[in-house]
Design a protein that fits this description.
Elements lengths: L5 H20 L7 E7 L5 E6 L10 H20 L13 H18 L3 H20 L41 E2 L5 E2 L1 E7 L21 H9 L1 H16 L5 E7 L5 E7 L5 H10 L1 E4 L16 E3 L4 E3 L10 H10 L7 E4 L4 E7 L3 H11 L15 H15 L46 E3 L8 H15 L12 E5 L10 H40 L1
Antiparallel strand pairs: 1-2, 1-14, 3-4, 5-7, 5-12, 6-7, 6-13, 8-11, 9-10
Helix pairs in contact: 1-12, 2-9, 3-4, 5-10, 6-7
This protein binds zinc ion (2 copies).
């Protein structure tokens, strides 16, 4: 074989695109992750591919679409519930054990990686954490920081101006009966938005960019998850039952996040309005309205002080805890930010199983395969400039107590460590594609369907196996050890080979499924006809 010419080499990436298209068409992950599986009984090891599990179609259309469908199933099932969900805390399952192991390996690799590899591993870690959360793992695997501070009385959240009822243990709304004896449970589709930051045109760009409040917009987006938590908490206390929801966060055209919620049970518009109006979230953080340093003149780490010091005087900066103590001691301290919803509120009653409910579910899951920014691609210069201004407002804003940006304001971040770069925090809230919202896109309350995404996935698998007449048991969780295979490992076949292998397997699998399905239909069909005739 001759070496490929320059022109031939230039065409090679195209072949890869074709291969990806074939993989996508056949429902095969285009970015499989190679893992080494060791059978502890036999000692055999094998490199196997697992789907990447990406949520965004721009990364892997197959995994993203599969996940979107699972989400729709999860949304439908919880909304349709007519009996309280069974909730038993399962012991860690196979997938969780695998993911936890994977996370440990990635964390280790991340700790000694630098540059682009570190970034890549950091984003993989975020993906794995999301998958862990989806699999029903509660809490976080990150090393626990210092003991949680007891909040002083001054920095408490004021209680909302709402009557408080005891929250009953039920999660179902009221059932109604029609005169002809049919029972139904109305539910709600609710949309909540943030307040105005200045008038906008239909394309979402400000009429007067100079007067548009980008700082408030940035802070509202950063603290949106907390505001949602407060709203749910207040709602439950006000209506007196354990309201459940399936919610999705999406950007509006003006780039502010808004929230769509499928709520189980019904609540009057007047009551919703009251709860929305009374809900707010106070952010008790040290002041950060004035930059004390620039990224170039930022405080530096001093091993001697085990903390960050002023580059000119060498004096250590106040630690996070000291800064909070100062806030407590200040007689006229105010919260850095108070987040509230806007006055716009859209609530519609939905009858479960109705075409309207299906339309809402489609709407809720429609944009899940896109990143926040991909939901509205800037069409022209004014829109691009609007994104730029919001990104600029977010760049130096602290996103959390541990954010490296605190150094710009003369405060050490919580759990300060060497190597933090002021103005270059890597958290996703600062990234353009997230527009300040660093939280999860899909928020599902614990007792929504009583099942995790993993349970929903397992049900689909069980259905397929059942149709094929196979009785594959879930593998013994203790039988295998899993480890990540680092790129460049000689045991990994070229991507093209792996994709083709997966496509072939998929085709075989689908043919078997088709055969089984037509056989099943062939068996049941005469019976149905017979019954039909009898009736
Ligand atoms: Zn994938
Ligand atoms: Zn940050």
């Amino acid at each position: 074989m001759t070496t490929p010419t320059r022109a031939e080499r230039a065409r090679m990436p195209l072949a890869r695109d074709v291969l990806q298209a074939v993989a996508e068409e056949n429902g095969v992950c285009i970015r499989p992750v190679a893992v080494r599986r060791t059978d502890v009984l036999t000692g055999e090891t094998e490199v196997v591919d697992i789907p990447c599990g990406a949520t965004r179609a721009s990364i892997c259309p197959t995994c993203a679409e599969r996940k979107r469908r699972l989400r729709a199933a999860q949304c439908r099932e919880g909304w349709h519930l007519t009996a309280e969900p069974a909730l038993d805390a399962d012991p860690a399952n196979d997938e969780q054990r695998f993911l936890a192991g994977l996370r440990a390996d990635l964390t280790k690799a991340h700790a000694c990686a630098t540059g682009a590899e570190a970034d890549e591993l950091a984003s993989l870690l975020v993906d794995v954490d999301e998958q862990l959360a989806d699999s029903g793992m509660r809490g976080t695997l990150a090393p626990a920081g210092a003991a949680r501070r007891v909040r002083s009385t001054k920095r408490r959240q004021d209680t909302p101006d709402l009557p408080r009822r005891t929250v009953e243990a039920r999660t179902l709304g009221k059932a109604y009966t029609t005169p002809d004896g049919k029972a139904f449970r109305p539910s709600l589709f609710l949309t909540l938005t943030l307040p105005s930051y200045g008038r906008v045109r239909t394309d979402g760009t400000p009429v007067d960019p100079a007067a548009y409040d980008y700082l408030r917009a940035a802070r509202d987006a950063l603290h949106f998850p907390k505001l949602i938590d407060r709203f749910i908490q207040n709602l439950r206390r006000f209506v007196g039952f354990d309201v459940q929801y399936f919610a999705v966060v999406e950007p509006q055209r003006r780039l502010a996040p808004h929230l769509h919620l499928a709520l189980r049970g019904t609540i009057s518009r007047a009551d919703l309005r009251r709860v929305v109006a009374a809900t707010y979230h106070q952010v008790w953080w040290p002041p950060c309205d004035r930059l004390r340093y620039t990224p170039e003149t930022a405080p530096t780490w001093s091993p001697e002080h085990e903390g960050y010091t002023d580059p000119a005087s060498g004096e250590p900066l106040p630690t996070w805890d000291q800064a909070l103590d100062d806030l407590d001691a200040a007689p006229d301290a105010e919260p850095l930010h108070v987040g509230r919803f806007g006055t716009q509120l859209d609530a519609q009653g939905v009858l479960i199983g109705s075409p309207e409910a299906n339309r809402c579910i489609r709407y809720l899951t429609k944009y899940l395969t896109k990143s926040v920014a991909e939901c509205h691609t800037p069409a022209g210069d004014p829109e691009q400039a609007h994104v730029d201004r919001l990104a600029a407002a977010l760049q130096h804003e602290p996103c959390s107590p541990t954010c490296a940006n605190w150094l710009l304001y003369g405060v050490q971040p919580r759990n300060a460590r060497p190597g933090q770069r002021a103005g270059a925090c890597r958290a996703r809230a600062h990234k353009r594609e997230h527009l300040g919202y660093g939280g999860r896109r899909v928020l599902v309350s614990r007792k929504w369907s009583g099942k995790t995404l993993t349970d929903h996935r397992a049900e689909r698998r069980a259905w397929v196996l059942d149709l094929l007449g196979r009785t594959d048991q879930a593998p013994d969780p203790h039988r295998y050890l899993w480890a990540v295979v680092r790129p460049g490992d000689p045991d990994i076949a070229p991507l093209a080979t792996r994709l083709l292998r997966a496509v072939a397997e998929r085709v075989r699998w689908r043919e078997a499924l088709e055969t089984a399905r037509s056989r099943a239909e062939g068996q049941t069909h005469p019976t149905t006809t017979h019954e039909g005739k009898a009736a």
